[in-house]
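Re: [ENG-882] Designed sequences occasionally contain unexpected residues at chain ends

Forwarding the minimal case from QA. Structure tokens:
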């Protein structure tokens, strides 16, 4: 994505922005929040009208003028929805030429296996870090509290495989989510206890595997102040299972690689706050009063603005407001992004760990992972790639799978589709 030094610098700016603005803005009145969003949206719409080719043409087509037609927040509904297919088809027309060389690049993989490259402005990435930091602060996290992380780490060297890695600057300890056998999970827990970790972070699917092991083995647990989850749907059952096993509360975070909208737990853990400074979230009808479609507009990304973006996620609407005093809107949960895993004889490997590989290969336009029985895994690439990319993907997948698993790439093969013609990112073919 971008180099570690730049990441650290922007993270530091995010921490300061959190301290001097976000810790105050979460206490704004509802009216003040809406005024803030209206100002931010108007600035963004002006940029779209004057600098973004796609929206300049769209506004002309629908006869929309920002100064004349945008007076209230609801006026954004005059603009048609933006779909992922639109961004993929007209990608270059969404890019702000003034930010093109300065922007950071985010890659999405998603649950469909069709990646998308998104440019993110510096302002947005600072907001990203600030928003996460605020949620951590709400959970009681203090700078450099020791954190155990079961995600975002893949051991490279098979001969001298290190399933545990240290980040001394942040005081993080990473545990490989690809190697969660019973014996390794025992090592992980003993290591967490020995090193007195205070917080645990990971994909819900990875932490659920660890929680299952704790429950069935009765293993001792580290004394945690809190748990952080993100990147997958956290069901009520999974939340109860993880919190019960580790005797600590989860702070769940909902966000997107496209950096559109975000939401998360506060210290009350009664639902997800919509982080209103991050993006403007709309809830569209679905025919079910308890569920709404999430449509969002990021308020800070001037490099590649996406107005009224269809997230393809559903919000489960909360019946009650959170009693914390914040005036942010609340949702109970987000529905979508099903947690799945490659199921092997001695372990399960959550698929999110493989999706993150594909984020780094934007030229692999359409792909699918297929598990054949218990000992063969196939990566289907629908549009052929060159031998160099194929070789790198082969290396990356093989390094993350047990030695007894046969892995192979089918380059230029059509993906398996369901009866409705839908292509899933993962298919399990039982013998």
């Amino acid at each position: 994505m971008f180099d570690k030094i730049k990441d650290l610098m922007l993270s530091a700016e995010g921490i300061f922005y959190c301290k001097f603005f976000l810790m105050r803005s979460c206490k704004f009145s509802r009216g003040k929040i809406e005024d803030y969003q209206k100002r931010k949206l108007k600035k963004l719409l002006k940029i779209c009208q004057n600098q973004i080719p796609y929206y300049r043409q769209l506004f002309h087509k629908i006869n929309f003028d920002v100064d004349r037609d945008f007076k209230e927040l609801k006026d954004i509904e005059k603009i048609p929805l933006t779909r992922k297919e639109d961004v993929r088809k007209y990608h270059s027309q969404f890019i702000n030429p003034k930010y093109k060389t300065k922007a950071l690049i985010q890659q999405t993989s998603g649950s469909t296996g069709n990646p998308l490259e998104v440019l993110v402005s510096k302002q947005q990435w600072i907001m990203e870090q600030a928003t996460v930091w605020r949620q951590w602060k709400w959970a009681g996290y203090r700078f450099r509290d020791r954190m155990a992380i079961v995600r975002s780490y893949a051991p490279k060297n098979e001969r001298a495989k290190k399933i545990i890695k240290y980040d001394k600057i942040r005081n993080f300890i990473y545990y490989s989510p690809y190697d969660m056998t019973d014996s390794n999970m025992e090592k992980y827990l003993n290591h967490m206890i020995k090193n007195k970790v205070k917080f645990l972070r990971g994909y819900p699917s990875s932490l659920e595997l660890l929680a299952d092991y704790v429950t069935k083995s009765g293993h001792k647990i580290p004394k945690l102040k809190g748990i952080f989850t993100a990147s997958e749907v956290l069901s009520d059952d999974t939340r109860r299972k993880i919190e019960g096993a580790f005797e600590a509360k989860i702070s769940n975070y909902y966000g997107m690689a496209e950096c559109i909208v975000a939401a998360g737990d506060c210290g009350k853990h009664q639902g997800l706050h919509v982080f209103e400074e991050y993006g403007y979230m709309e809830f569209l009808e679905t025919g079910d009063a308890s569920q709404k479609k999430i449509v969002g507009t990021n308020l800070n990304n001037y490099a590649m603005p996406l107005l009224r973006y269809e997230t393809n996620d559903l919000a489960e609407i909360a019946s009650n407001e959170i009693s914390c005093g914040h005036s942010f809107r609340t949702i109970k949960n987000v529905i979508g992004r099903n947690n799945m895993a490659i199921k092997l004889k001695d372990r399960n490997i959550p698929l999110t760990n493989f999706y993150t590989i594909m984020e780094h290969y934007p030229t692999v336009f359409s792909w699918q992972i297929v598990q054949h029985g218990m000992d063969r895994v196939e990566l289907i690439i629908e549009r052929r790639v060159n031998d160099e990319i194929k070789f790198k993907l082969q290396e990356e997948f093989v390094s993350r799978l047990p030695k007894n698993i046969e892995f192979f790439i089918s380059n230029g093969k059509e993906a398996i589709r369901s009866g409705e013609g839908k292509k899933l990112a993962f298919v399990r073919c039982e013998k």
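QA comment: On inspection the terminal residues look reasonable. The mean pLDDT is 91. Proposing we downgrade this to a documentation issue.
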